[in-house]
């Protein structure tokens, strides 16, 4: 993909115009993020100024201090991280097994299952908030730790909702592993589970990373479930909910909101930069011949 | 989403040849046909996924349908009152409510505008990316990656702040350009400007997916084909129409359907940016409407009925998607 480059001859002034446009668009797209970080570092007075300036002469950590000391943001951060980590690992493992089943075996109902996974991707998870609310309430009565007001009530639904897409996407990666390799492994006396974990798993790992990006982001971003399922136990709240604390009737604490937003966005940005190549090639895999 | 899908659409011919069962097996072909079947092994591998999906997706869907036919309010949830079967009464109440139809129309129109804008911006920028050298390309890619990575909640708060009537820079910039009407203009006060504000945020955070995917698609088109066409004197428009568009179609289908699905269920942006549905609920979409009905006013049956309507609308989208895949000869 990278070596075949579309380079129709373009005349010089057009190319320069295109490049100028690209740079301007990049600046506009990046501006909200710049403004977020800038406002997080601005001292209180500058944020409340009705003449906002695109720079600050006196950067301060006051907003961050307020976020972490007054609102116990660290706790919410760890909650979010824990939920996302469990969802990513659990759904990756479960999806790997399922993708192997549908990609490397032929069995009855295989096509039916695949269509069901596809349909499941389209289910608007938001529409299921009400039954899930009652399900979590009932589960919580018999199984402590996964009922309402616990992190389990956020983890379980997100595993379920990341699975169909993860299976569908991983299927391609599992299929791409040559069958000759599998046959060679069996000829060499490897057992099925040995092939699965020691040969197939490492080979499919890049695909798992690409898939995990999506499950991580959807979990990290979740607002609706956190809002609906964590009712009274605010200590089990996650970042998106904690952010709303700074919206106040008597005037929003914009410095706090922007500092909290920065703290919430940075991990995702780091994660994105780390997996960026895998992600782009994973998406590129969708079109590569 | 199915980035993996298009992959197989392209690979389909080879796959079909390889895995078609039947007596015609090429010499030296499959030696382990029997073990490919694997007996119970595939079901063993599928078990965890099926348990999770059955418990947390299939069962809740059944419950959703069930609740939508019951009387289910605070009295039943915590008051211990018996639930009664209502038949289609909840739906009748919903469909008889003018506000519901307003919300449906608003949801469909808003989603349509979001999808079209996202696709237009994403595709235009993907084409732009192929026309520039490394540094502008990297700059745009990084900026897009940043927007993509931003969580919906933080993106929403930042955009609200950018457009804040008193402290936001956008109004100042507009005034500086001579549009003095934007002096302390409140974007969330008016219905359409509030929807526009949400639209900007939605396009901002979802065009990168379209851009990156379409860009990857354009790059996958062999250069020789395009050069040959150019040498034969084909115009840019002609090259686009007869070579690039058909080759990009599978990708365009994927990103379009994906955008429809995302934009139809926008919740966070509306909820955060318009403070729960806007002034006098002017910015309600189905999702927020269902949430408000169920959790704010404890009318769980009505909320569930709205959920069922959403489910049905997206089911239609899914069926269209499946048909399109089939037509492309996708082997499942």
UniProtKB/TrEMBL annotation, chain A:
Compartment(s): Cell membrane
Keyword Transmembrane helix attached: yes
UniProt domain ABC transmembrane type-1: residue ranges: 77-275
Keyword check for Transport: yes
Pfam families: BPD_transp_1
Membrane topology: Multi-pass membrane protein
Family annotation (CDD domains): TM_PBP2 (cd06261)
Keywords: Cell membrane, Membrane, Transmembrane, Transmembrane helix, Transport
Transmembrane feature ranges: 20-41, 76-101, 113-135, 155-174, 195-217, 254-275
Homology family: Belongs to the binding-protein-dependent transport system permease family.
Entry protein name: Carbohydrate ABC transporter permease
From TrEMBL, chain B:
Coiled coil stretches, renumbered: none
UniProt-listed SUPFAM superfamilies: MetI-like (SSF161098)
Keyword Signal included in the entry's annotation: no
InterPro entries found in the cross-reference section: MetI-like, MetI-like_sf, UgpAE/MalFG_permease
Main subcellular location: membrane
Transmembrane spans: 43-62, 100-128, 140-162, 192-218, 239-261, 300-322
Domain ABC transmembrane type-1: 104-321
PANTHER family per UniProt: BLL4140 PROTEIN, DIACETYLCHITOBIOSE UPTAKE SYSTEM PERMEASE PROTEIN DASB
Name under which the protein is recorded: Sugar ABC transporter permease
Organism: Streptomyces yatensis
Organism lineage string: Bacteria, Bacillati, Actinomycetota, Actinomycetes, Kitasatosporales
């Amino acid at each position: 993909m990278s070596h075949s480059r579309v380079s129709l001859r373009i005349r010089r002034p057009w190319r320069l115009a295109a490049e100028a446009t690209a740079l301007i668009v990049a600046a506009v797209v990046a501006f909200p993020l710049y403004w977020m970080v800038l406002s997080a570092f601005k001292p209180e007075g500058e944020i409340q100024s009705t003449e906002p300036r695109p720079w600050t002469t006196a950067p301060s950590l006051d907003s961050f201090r307020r976020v972490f000391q007054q609102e116990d943001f660290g706790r919410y951060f760890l909650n979010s991280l824990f939920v996302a980590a469990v969802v990513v690992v659990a759904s990756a493992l479960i999806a790997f097994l399922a993708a192997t089943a549908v990609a490397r075996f032929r069995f009855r109902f295989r096509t039916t299952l695949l269509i069901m996974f596809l349909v499941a991707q389209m289910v608007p998870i938001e529409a299921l908030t009400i039954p899930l609310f009652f399900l979590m309430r009932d589960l919580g009565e018999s199984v402590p730790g996964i009922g309402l007001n616990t992190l389990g009530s956020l983890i379980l639904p997100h595993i379920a909702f990341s699975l169909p897409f993860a299976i569908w996407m991983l299927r391609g990666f599992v299929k791409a592993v040559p069958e000759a390799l599998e046959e060679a492994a069996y000829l060499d006396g490897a057992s099925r589970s040995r092939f699965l974990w020691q040969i197939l798993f490492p080979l499919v790992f890049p695909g798992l990373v690409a898939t995990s990006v999506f499950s991580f982001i959807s979990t990290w971003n979740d607002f609706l479930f956190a809002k609906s399922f964590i009712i009274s136990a605010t200590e089990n709240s996650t970042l998106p909910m904690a952010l709303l604390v700074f919206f106040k009737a008597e005037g929003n604490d914009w410095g706090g909101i922007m500092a909290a937003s920065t703290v919430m966005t940075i991990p995702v940005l780091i994660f994105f930069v780390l997996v960026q190549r895998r992600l782009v090639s994973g998406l590129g895999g969708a079109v590569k011949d | 989403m199915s980035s993996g899908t298009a992959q197989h659409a392209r690979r389909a011919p080879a796959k079909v040849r390889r895995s078609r069962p039947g007596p015609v097996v090429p010499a030296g072909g499959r030696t382990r046909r029997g073990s490919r079947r694997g007996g119970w092994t595939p079901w063993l591998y599928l078990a965890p996924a099926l348990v999770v999906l059955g418990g947390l997706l299939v069962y809740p869907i059944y419950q959703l349908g069930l609740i939508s036919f019951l009387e289910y309010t605070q009295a039943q949830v915590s008051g211990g009152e018996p639930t009664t079967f209502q038949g289609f009464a909840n739906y009748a109440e919903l469909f008889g409510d003018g506000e519901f139809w307003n919300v449906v129309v608003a949801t469909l129109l808003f989603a349509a505008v979001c999808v079209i804008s996202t696709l237009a911006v994403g595709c235009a920028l993907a084409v732009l990316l192929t026309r520039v050298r490394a540094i502008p390309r990297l700059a745009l890619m990084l900026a897009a990656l940043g927007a993509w990575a931003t969580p919906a909640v933080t993106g929403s708060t930042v955009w609200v702040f950018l457009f804040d009537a008193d402290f936001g820079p956008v109004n100042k910039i507009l005034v500086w350009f001579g549009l003095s009407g934007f002096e302390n203009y409140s974007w969330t006060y008016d219905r359409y400007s509030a929807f526009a504000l949400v639209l900007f945020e939605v396009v901002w955070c979802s065009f990168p997916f379209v851009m990156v995917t379409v860009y990857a698609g354009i790059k996958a088109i062999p250069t020789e084909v395009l050069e040959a066409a150019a040498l034969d004197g084909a115009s840019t428009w002609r090259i686009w129409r007869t070579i690039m568009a058909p080759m990009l179609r599978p990708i365009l289908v994927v990103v379009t359907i994906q955008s429809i699905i995302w934009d139809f269920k926008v919740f966070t942006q509306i909820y955060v940016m318009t403070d729960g549905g806007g002034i006098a609920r002017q910015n309600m979409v189905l999702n927020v409407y269902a949430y408000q009905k169920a959790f704010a006013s404890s009318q769980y049956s009505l909320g569930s009925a709205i959920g069922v309507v959403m489910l049905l609308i997206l089911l239609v989208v899914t069926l269209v998607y499946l048909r399109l895949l089939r037509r492309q000869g996708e082997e499942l």
